[in-house]
Here is the input.
Amino acid sequence: MDSTGEVSRVGNPMRTRQPRRLGKATKAGRATKADRAGQPGQGRVALLFLLPALISLALLRLIPAGVALVDSFFTESLLRGGRVFVGLGNYSDLLGNADFRKSVGVTLLFTVIVNPLQIAVAFLLAVLYTQRATGSKFWRSLVILPIAVPPAVSAVIWSVIYRPDGLGNSFLDLLKIPAQPFLTSTEQALPSIIVLLSWIGVGYWMLFLIAGINDIPDDIHEAASLDGVSPWRRLWSITLPLVRRPLAFVLVADTVSNLLVFAPVQILTKGGPNGTTNLMMYDVYNRAYAIGDLHTAQAEVILLVAVTLIIVALQFRLLRGDDR
Amino acid sequence: MKRTLLSAGAAVIGLLFFIPLLWVLTGSLRPGSETFARLSPLSWDSFITVHPTLENYSKLFTGDIGRATANSLLVSVSTVLAGLAICSSAAFALSALRFRGQTAVFAIVVLSFLIPFDAIAIPLSDMFRDWNLTNTFTGLVLPGIGNGMAIFLLRQFFLAIPTELVEAGRLDGLGWFGVFIRIYLPLSRPALIGAGLTLFLFQWHSYVWPLLMGTDRGHILGPVALANLQGQNFVDYGVVFAGAVLLTLIPLAVILGFQRYFIQSVSSSGLK
Here is the structure.
């Protein structure tokens, strides 16, 4: 997986903003010309080409989100026979629910730790693996390798590593550290999940940052080193500011994907011990199937989707502001 | 001196990331009874076996995981074929044709990939239950086929195809479908492969949806079956590791085979 030099070709949403805007402008220009020439519209043909995709996007993405929104305002009542409108009742039930509040707290704590950690590590590794050093590309591909492992399979692998007699403790033993409980400890369970998720994710995010670093013209670094700027200063004052665009993108995409973490929690801890790893995505699942309260679960889905959309909207603003 | 230090750092970190997978690979080539036997103290033979055996793999192929992996392959390949047909024709309409409401349709496409699929999996699985799609391959494949990201990728690529080609094709009497099949698709191999990879990995890596939708033996997918196996009381870790290796090697082979396109699609997709 070495050909990261090609990265900028097809168009990362954040890089192709400029050309895309140009594309739109010429498109609009052409459309008005066609209208003036009195050409028949291509609406019917377009509809035929679009129909399968529009149906599947509506049916499989938008409608379920709409259904969840509507359902979140209703509840099932045996007394009054069937669905009853309760307005924001499910939401206030949720807010009053101690398990939910704890889950939000755990998710916040997790978000605040995991994202800066993964991005800092991904950035430092991207810097390391773009230095001209022997075998750099080979070692880099080992860091990227976990991308191929399905997340649920990674979770299974790490559940064995974290066993009391597993690889984790024999590693600590090598460093003369006593055996640790990992997943069964209220203090260590969440950090253990963070380590596993970083093993999965850091290589992936590193790819974007490597692409960003490779885009920095060589002469900038050469000029700086001729001027006697130290490597550490160059990292802070040249590399970091010049990759802020991919960095902002990685920050948002990473935050969104970490908001939806499910498989490791379900496979490793089931939210425990004592709710310390009960991330929101698992809480939704648990509420819907173990507790069987589908309507409150739908309300929680809506909250989760809303938070995601807010973060993504922030990204668009951030990147737009960057253009000026 | 500095160069040596950097090389050493690069190697040590690369190895640290690789060790869990190496341990799994070695464990898969050892009898299950030995998985934990060689861990304390840690030594070279914790990670390398001199007497590899394929016993675990033969158990795998006769057991549930083998079946589940075949299910995963069927679901992922069907998704790629159906998904490419649907997504490329939509991308064609959004790039080659001009019609009213184009911007609105494009907005719908973008919105649909901003809604995280895993979050709406629960309401969607409720709908699928009403439509009797639980434990069917249709139910497993469907959510993968309309992929806003794939449409977006293909549209970006299609926009770069010169309109002169389309006009020439039209003058030669090609219909729009002909323009799509004869001009756009052959010119877009890299983008089609990139989008195909996006679709493939979406399905191969999915967990929430197959957990909700495919639970019986005939429809369970690889990752779910492996997670179930791991959760049991008496586990043969040799077989678990062989399953993990198999479920990783397949996407790895696909990624390595199309490496160039994978890097492109990763860098242009971004939102997983």
